[in-house]
């Protein structure tokens, strides 16, 4: 019975797109109301209706008032459960969507924020093969996390989501479709192996001295050195003064990641190699710049700079 209902539902989505809002995108926020909430009996609800019919026929045939009263009470309860299932969705609003970062082939995490003016129980949200159950508090925002599979880099349109509930008795299923006009940016997949990037800034011309708090070495005294830096104990064993040197070389590598240096590769291979170089630079905490056709990103480091570079790679044609 359940498979039959799902088959009928899929047929209705294909044949009646206006009724089921099939492939219809909407801007946020999206609020559910009575014109877009659908209710059908569940398999258990159909079996329960058959049982009530048999009980009604038997009660009338044998003129059993107690059985007739019980049948009417059960029928009223089932009708009330349909109203409760409808109210579980009525007024629920999807206010915003936030997406995480993921490379192609890995699932991206989505965070959906639902606003509700009253308490709601046993609501389910389906996105592809992912499904999550949640409840909302009165006059509060509830954040739901789902995962969306990815296969290619670039902008990925968010598919429609189904929100439904069979609360409280499971006799009826109320559902609605959410198809937000929202896309997530999927980063390119780095290549597995290959040559390392050229880092011309690693030579001595790009080395500079920095003053730290730890002693680096002892050196001969030079005119102008402060007296507090003189190593008196070490100088007593020598015939000249020694000074504590707190300056030590610090390398500030500047990796220059350039699209034009990969002329022997096609576009996707270049993107995969640059993505791997970005991962290596980020892992080594290096400063790096990125040159792309029509887009040049100055040198920098850190998670925000890394995300900016990966976003630029993901949006290349």
Any overview of this molecule?
The chain has helices spanning 2-15, 17-20, 43-62, 65-89, 232-236, 267-283, 303-314, and strands spanning 30-31, 38-41, 93-99, 108-116, 120-127, 130-136, 140-148, 154-157, 161-165, 172-178, 183-186, 207-211, 217-220, 242-245, 247-251, 254-258, 287-292, 295-300. It folds into 3 domains: 2-186, no CATH class; 215-248, no CATH class; 253-314, no CATH class. Strand 17 and strand 18 (295-300) form a beta hairpin. The strands form 6 sheets. It has a 5-stranded antiparallel beta sheet with strand order 2-10-9-5-6. The chain has 317 residues and is an alpha+beta fold. The protein is built from 7 helices and 18 strands. Mean pLDDT is 84; it is low at 201-215. The chain starts with a helix and ends with a helix. It is elongated and about 125 Å long.
Nutshell version of this structure?
This protein has 317 residues and is α+β, with helices and mostly antiparallel strands.
Question: What is the fold's blueprint, element by element?
Answer:
Layout lengths: L1 H14 L1 H4 L9 E2 L6 E4 L1 H20 L2 H25 L3 E7 L8 E9 L3 E8 L2 E7 L3 E9 L5 E4 L3 E5 L6 E7 L4 E4 L20 E5 L5 E4 L11 H5 L5 E4 L1 E5 L2 E5 L8 H17 L3 E6 L2 E6 L2 H12 L3
Parallel strand pairs: 16-17
Antiparallel strand pairs: 1-3, 2-10, 3-4, 4-7, 5-6, 5-9, 8-11, 9-10, 12-15, 13-14, 17-18
Estimated radius of gyration: 34 Å
Largest sheet: 5 strands, antiparallel
* β-strand amount: 25-35%
Classify the helix fraction into a percent range: 25-40%
Strand order of the largest sheet: 2-10-9-5-6
CA(first)-CA(last) distance: 47 Å
User: What gross morphology would you assign?
Assistant: elongated
Question: Which H/E pattern describes the elements?
Answer: HHEEHHEEEEEEEEEEEHEEEHEEH
> What does the average pLDDT come to?
84
- Structural class, please? alpha+beta
Oligomeric state as shown: single chain
Low-confidence stretches: 201-215
Domains (count)? 3
Question: How many beta-strand segments?
Answer: 18
Organism: Rhodanobacter umsongensis
Protein name: DUF58 domain-containing protein
Transmembrane segments: 37-60, 66-86
Keywords: Membrane, Transmembrane, Transmembrane helix
